[in-house]
Amino acid sequence: MDGDGDLELAGALAAGEVGALAGLYDRYGPLAYSVALRILGDPGRAEDVVQDAFLKLWHSASRFDSHRGSLRTWVITAVRNRSIDYLRGRSAHERQEREIPADTEAQGAGSDPWHEVAASIQRDVIKEALASLPPEQRQAVELAYFGGYSHREIAEMICVPLSTVKGRMRLALEKLHSYLQGRGLLHDG
Question: What is the band of 19 on the pLDDT scale with cuts at 50, 70, 90?
Answer without folding.
Answer: confident
